[in-house]
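Raw record, unedited: Glycoside hydrolase family 97 C-terminal domain-containing protein
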Amino acid sequence: MLAMYIVLESALGMICDAPEAYLGQPGFESLKRVPATWDETRVIVAVPGKYITIARRKGFDWYIGAITNSEGRNLTLI
């Protein structure tokens, strides 16, 4: 679910509950750092309806997100 904040482009990315409900939960610190806008976007690999891996840059920082359908996959990034 965390990857969707990078993969899906939305100016209104938000969590579905009060932020206090996420305190101490795995991934919450990372989620707080995801930018709302991007300077650059690159699709690494994608097959519509199956999977996508995308890289987005804000300033000097790159964020990578990958999502898939119901089939498990392995991904190697170099």
